[in-house]
Amino acid sequence: MFNAPHPLTYLDAIHAFLKEDWGTQDWTTLSVPDRPMTATVVAKADLVLAGLPMAAEVLRAVDPALEVHLLPRDGDHLAPGRGVLRVVGSCRSILMAERVMLNLLQRLSGTATLTRAFVDAVAGTGARILDTRKTTPGLKLLEKYAVRCGGGVNHRLTLGDGVLLKENHIAAAGGIPEAVAGARRTAPNLLRIEVEVETLEQLAQCFTLADVDGVLLDNMGVEMMREAVAMRQAAGSRIFLEASGNLTLDRARAVAETGVDFLSVGALTHSAPAADMSLRLS
Amino acid sequence: MFNAPHPLTYLDAIHAFLKEDWGTQDWTTLSVPDRPMTATVVAKADLVLAGLPMAAEVLRAVDPALEVHLLPRDGDHLAPGRGVLRVVGSCRSILMAERVMLNLLQRLSGTATLTRAFVDAVAGTGARILDTRKTTPGLKLLEKYAVRCGGGVNHRLTLGDGVLLKENHIAAAGGIPEAVAGARRTAPNLLRIEVEVETLEQLAQCFTLADVDGVLLDNMGVEMMREAVAMRQAAGSRIFLEASGNLTLDRARAVAETGVDFLSVGALTHSAPAADMSLRLS
Amino acid sequence: MFNAPHPLTYLDAIHAFLKEDWGTQDWTTLSVPDRPMTATVVAKADLVLAGLPMAAEVLRAVDPALEVHLLPRDGDHLAPGRGVLRVVGSCRSILMAERVMLNLLQRLSGTATLTRAFVDAVAGTGARILDTRKTTPGLKLLEKYAVRCGGGVNHRLTLGDGVLLKENHIAAAGGIPEAVAGARRTAPNLLRIEVEVETLEQLAQCFTLADVDGVLLDNMGVEMMREAVAMRQAAGSRIFLEASGNLTLDRARAVAETGVDFLSVGALTHSAPAADMSLRLS
Amino acid sequence: MFNAPHPLTYLDAIHAFLKEDWGTQDWTTLSVPDRPMTATVVAKADLVLAGLPMAAEVLRAVDPALEVHLLPRDGDHLAPGRGVLRVVGSCRSILMAERVMLNLLQRLSGTATLTRAFVDAVAGTGARILDTRKTTPGLKLLEKYAVRCGGGVNHRLTLGDGVLLKENHIAAAGGIPEAVAGARRTAPNLLRIEVEVETLEQLAQCFTLADVDGVLLDNMGVEMMREAVAMRQAAGSRIFLEASGNLTLDRARAVAETGVDFLSVGALTHSAPAADMSLRLS
Amino acid sequence: MFNAPHPLTYLDAIHAFLKEDWGTQDWTTLSVPDRPMTATVVAKADLVLAGLPMAAEVLRAVDPALEVHLLPRDGDHLAPGRGVLRVVGSCRSILMAERVMLNLLQRLSGTATLTRAFVDAVAGTGARILDTRKTTPGLKLLEKYAVRCGGGVNHRLTLGDGVLLKENHIAAAGGIPEAVAGARRTAPNLLRIEVEVETLEQLAQCFTLADVDGVLLDNMGVEMMREAVAMRQAAGSRIFLEASGNLTLDRARAVAETGVDFLSVGALTHSAPAADMSLRLS
Amino acid sequence: MFNAPHPLTYLDAIHAFLKEDWGTQDWTTLSVPDRPMTATVVAKADLVLAGLPMAAEVLRAVDPALEVHLLPRDGDHLAPGRGVLRVVGSCRSILMAERVMLNLLQRLSGTATLTRAFVDAVAGTGARILDTRKTTPGLKLLEKYAVRCGGGVNHRLTLGDGVLLKENHIAAAGGIPEAVAGARRTAPNLLRIEVEVETLEQLAQCFTLADVDGVLLDNMGVEMMREAVAMRQAAGSRIFLEASGNLTLDRARAVAETGVDFLSVGALTHSAPAADMSLRLS
């Protein structure tokens, strides 16, 4: 429903995560007798769930004989005490999978939960919440998915799937028109071009350029953003406007009410606290 | 100084991170002319630095011709505005390295900064701050290093370098003595054995077992922990005591003052917000 | 100049190609004494060059002590007999690198040469030559680069950097408007949407949809394409038009003269014959 | 029947090809609802089939629940319109597998088809068609298999499974006898030795050397090759003769009729156009 | 029972071993018709078995349809002629798996067999047999397992799971007390510290240091070791004593009878001859 | 001189070996101060050296700043006390490289030393010593090189570079002539065919088949082998004869004196004890 990545794109990573966690062997678990066990991952706080398919793949990688029951679905809002998944099978297998499974679930749900908070904060304004490239190295595809589970929209996933001309690029090209022309010549045909601006003069310049698809308003105040939206209307432009920089939860609604189309929030992926969960014996 | 991991252990990861960030090609950067550039990574908030050797390897991986000057050292406390590293060379190379370099530096410094806050909170009590296995999948060695940069001590890095008998292991073994005996039989000779306890009765039992090297006091109140410390003294035991569970910055000093040896804090690696930094043209 | 991929994105592949070619050991070369040697890669037919940086990386991977002189540049048109690169050093190293280096150079130059033929065929019409996803498995980034060396423009490189709604997608969505709306909801914000149409009725429908950025005219005759261009003008639309299907060199100019913006040619990457080159002792 | 490579030797490559084609995610396919679908790969031109087991592995890698029916067998000659394989299952899975599956099938069948054309051209002469090491980097094992499907015979697959002393080796060794002696000393015991010659004098020299197993006649005219065959008969030699260089389809029969044992044709793998196929909804 | 490593930790290695053995294709096996076959791996000498799960994974990797019957269990002592495993299925699959399966079984059983000989030699003395880090590169986890199958105990598996201060470390630190203090500061909390000593003076020093958990007696004579044990008793120390250096089977019992806790034997993994086995048609 | 494998073919393995040995971090070495150090690898027993280039690559992989002096050359016979290589540089780097470097050197020199013993045992007879495919999984190319350093000759390295028809193949094919004909049809053209025989009747049959290049005499007694050689002479055959099975050092000369061309000895790679070496501070 939120377009989870294909397992082929993250299964090698899951294997690597397990080996990273195990080191050589799990001496603790190997020192106790194996026996059947039923365990449940439980939410210990309010959270928006993300990562169930990945959690299931972790369990399958450790032991394909484990029986796994996914209780809710990614994107669901869970109250404390709600079960997330139940697993039945070898106690050793479950204990060897536990930490990596929880580390993934908690991190992805942390991102989904924070995203939902932003989405709720701007509800009704028409603005949407975007992520950034400030993702955890190695987890980009999964975190981008977690943002979608939280109701957010993905900005470009890589440098290859979109053009965003920032201050440095514009300086190197010698100006916005030159940078935009260069980008249109260089980028594959199905990529849009977005330009980062710091002043309304720069914004006005963008409205005159046919190849600009969107503008990132960098670190502007609310008043200035409102003016930017008004300028767009006056220009009859279809360019989308993205607010960026210093977008805290407190400030999000005011920004959204200026009429911008998107708020992009780096914190969704670089600073979301882990959602609290634990594995309980049932 | 903080025993950074050998580059061989993370260089493949850095290559993967760059490719993950680039996707196919960086069309934006490729659309502007290349030229020499000097840029500086700058702290934008108070932080404890971690990740400089990794940042330098990111730059080298993108372009060995870049000239890199590391300004402070990992473990240093930086005020906002302080430079972190300066890089001179091809503008294209720097822009292609920027995001991955910052993502690593900000994440690792975030962990070091939070660790330092805990270390400072317990200063003078003799207690030390431990991390946990709640690390970011794929970044364990680097995050463990960041904890050291912040003044913390590493708990086991993997399941292979220490025995920690938790509730589930003890239940499966049929009791603490059985679990400890099994672990001593199973684990390689140079590994210590730690037992998680939830009651003082369990703790008392541990004092009677020669093979117990440490005890994790799980989610106990401050009063109970003080009693645990007193019991150890009465027993003349050398077992170390580790407080664990719900250890917020607010509560840390009170816990440390009970006389426990260690406080283990999952948040160091699972919920530290990124330290704020950016790349500025000099 | 044609934005060659960063070596980090293909160096592992080059190592794999060499090992694939060597098998265990190059017994033939090992059976002769090593000695200094100068050799030149020479064009044996008219061709447009592509692959020089990759050829140089092959030589460096085999022996960093080899001295390599690149004679012309990628994108240059070479007459038979022209030198491509000269290499000086260990005869064993050169012989062990020869076949992989030539296989890459000949294949990439083959694509560049065929691309240039199409570009020349449509010269002056304003139409540009696009490639497709019909690339050699494992060589996509390099072949896309070869297309650029030949003067072509890249269509999307992967399924992740552009939306192209084909017949099957439209059928599954229940119609063009539904498919386009779904794609706009699903795809990251910086991706354009292109729609494949087989009739002019479908094309007319596209002109009414704000989120359609381009239309692929599938297997249409020249007359029908001319009409499509006229319809666009009448509609005052900025949508780009791409001709696709059965575009031979013979037919290319007539298609281009209809006024379409792009001709996409699968043969550039799936059926270009290798450009003829060989390694000669100088 | 044609000794397809073991899947273990190419499964990692198939996974890499899929990831290369997908980039991040297949936004187009993810934007339409999933539903059951039946599709058939159909030949659109006369062709000799190669690659069915690989195509089946592509489908299995994307979705093990897909039901795959292989209709003909590799090595079969198909007329336009003939079905190649039918697949039933998730529409999304099929669309995500389509391009890589077709790219492999078309490329391998292209090689098999061209090989068969050469085999047919020399039918009845006793000569056989050999491939070369001029294969696509990364696809050697599969292309060598395609040559077998077309009725050809594999020359050495790697530098490790045969000795072929060329002009440069002979020069470095100081003559044919020296080169052959060195090779016999160096190469593992189960490898044969072939010598490339450009003159009949060199050929005569080979007949005197017990360790020469075969001779490659490099770029000789038909008349000269006929003489070479006569010389062999006169010498009572069992050495095999391989014609090489500039062997077009037009010229193949005349060359074969000289009595040489093999014709080696680089074009089989470096310049075969893709066989035309497409995926149709049934 | 002997805590075999999880297949995830060695399955990639098994795939690599098979490809290493196959090279390109197994032409010999491919040249004979396939047919059902039953074969048995048979012990041809007295041996202690190790490697059955790995052997089964080799067979499964080559052909999941093979039916595999494990006859005894790892750790069992087998007389010549005893069956080890029986496999039923495709003759081609079995022949392609044979060599790698036997190479692993014979090598691991060789280590288990030699370990058992040492264990038997010291039976009744209370001493136990330790391995070392002198393992075969690439096979460490499997060889450590083989040692356990033979009744031995693992010393540290890697440099990360234990501290062993040797002569060079002590010299660099400036003495045993300095080295031990540094190690305790540096190593994670659950690792023990062992010190290598060459004299009884050094040993005496170790008894005074609270952080020393064990002592390696390097290359001492039996008399000296007996004295070391007496000194430990006199000191009332719980430090374990490990004899190391030049421990042949002949000498093992005398060493064990000195009262040391462990004998560490590099030969278990660096010089154990392969256990003799072969594959027989049943 | 002995045709060491190209570093590209084993460098990834060396990196993996180091990581396998290190686990997470080398806490022991990290706990002592770094300082310059000079160390020498010294032979502690009579041995034939093999593995110097690999040892040098281990040191370079750990620290490119280490200065490495190779003292003798691979293939040299060393007396106890002779230096093998001297390394100057960071004490930490040397200690982190020590174990893997020695493990490789000792193992490869062990094989070279045992090979030389066999070569010496048959000196003057004209017979040569062959290895087998009974190599250590993961180390095949290096062990085959060690055999060459000891004066041995490589049998096929993989199943892809030679045909050896064994009992099972012959049974499956229905007889020696059928098996040989099938192999000649199947195998690439530059591979020889060897047939394993257990009786002189089978041998006689081989002499009648033009496509048999060699015969492996399986587990025959000396008398029978002498007869085999006589039969070959009588038949005027050029087929080579290889003695195999149970070839101990004691028996080798008698076997060689029968006139066979080769003795193949599995023990060279499956049971050679490690050559004794250690690292000494100079």
Account of the protein in words:
The structure is a homohexamer of 282-residue chains. Chain A has helices at residues 11-22, 27-30, 52-62, 91-121, 140-149, 167-173, 176-186, 200-207, 222-235, 249-256, 267-270, and strands spanning 36-43, 47-48, 67-70, 77-78, 83-90, 128-130, 163-165, 193-197, 214-218, 240-244, 262-264, 277-281. Chain A is an alpha/beta fold. Chain A has a 6-stranded parallel β-sheet with strand order 6-11-10-9-8-7. Chain A has a 4-stranded antiparallel β-sheet with strand order 3-5-1-12, with helices on one face. In chain A, strand 10 (240-244), helix 10 (249-256) and strand 11 (262-264) form a beta-alpha-beta unit. In chain A, helix 4 (91-121) crosses helix 5 (140-149). The first copy, chain A, starts with 10 loop residues before the first helix and ends with a strand. Chains in contact: A-B, A-C, A-D, A-E, B-C, B-E, B-F, C-D, C-F, D-E, D-F, E-F. At the A-B interface, helix 1, helix 2, helix 4, strand 7 and helix 6 of A face helix 1, helix 2, helix 4, strand 7 and helix 6 of B.
List strands and helices in order, with pairings:
Six copies of one chain form a homohexamer.
Chain A: H1 11-22, H2 27-30, E1 36-43, E2 47-48, H3 52-62, E3 67-70, E4 77-78, E5 83-90, H4 91-121, E6 128-130, H5 140-149, E7 163-165, H6 167-173, H7 176-186, E8 193-197, H8 200-207, E9 214-218, H9 222-235, E10 240-244, H10 249-256, E11 262-264, H11 267-270, E12 277-281
Parallel strand pairs in A: 6-11, 7-8, 8-9, 9-10, 10-11
Antiparallel strand pairs in A: 1-5, 1-12, 2-4, 3-5
Helix pairs in contact in A: 1-3, 1-4, 3-4, 4-5, 6-7, 8-9
